[in-house]
Amino acid sequence: MLTVAFPARAFDTNCYVVATGPGEECLVVDPGVGIEDTLRDVLEQHRLRPAAVLLTHGHLDHVYSVTPVCGSDTAAYIHADDRYRLTDLLAQTNPGLVAMFEQQFGARATWTDPTNVVEITDGTRLSLAGLDVDVLHAPGHTEGSVMFGLGGIPDGVSGQVDVDRTMVSGDVLFAGSIGRTDLPGGSHEAMQRSLRDVVLPLPDTTLVLPGHGPATTMAHERRTNPYLKDLPA
Question: Where is the Metallo-beta-lactamase domain (predicted)?
Answer without folding.
Answer: 12-212
